Write a sequence for this structure.
């Protein structure tokens, strides 16, 4: 695994958390190894209520329906 890419992804997550300090954050990611790197464990644990990596119930279709309902 390329640690430079993991570091860049970790930096991106931190920037998103800093930019949106309140509420849940939804990101749609593919299943790339970088998205499951152990280097992310501390950040994910610290922000578990906002960034839940195991929340796979949200699909693109449900996101579109949610956004289209005027809820976001």
């Amino acid at each position: 695994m390329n640690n430079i890419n993991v570091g860049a992804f970790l930096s991106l997550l931190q920037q998103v958390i800093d930019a949106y300090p309140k509420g849940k954050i939804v990101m749609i990611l593919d299943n790339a190894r970088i998205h499951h790197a152990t280097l992310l464990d501390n950040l994910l644990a610290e922000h578990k209520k906002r960034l839940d990596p195991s929340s796979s119930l949200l699909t693109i279709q449900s996101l579109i329906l949610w956004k289209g309902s005027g809820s976001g």
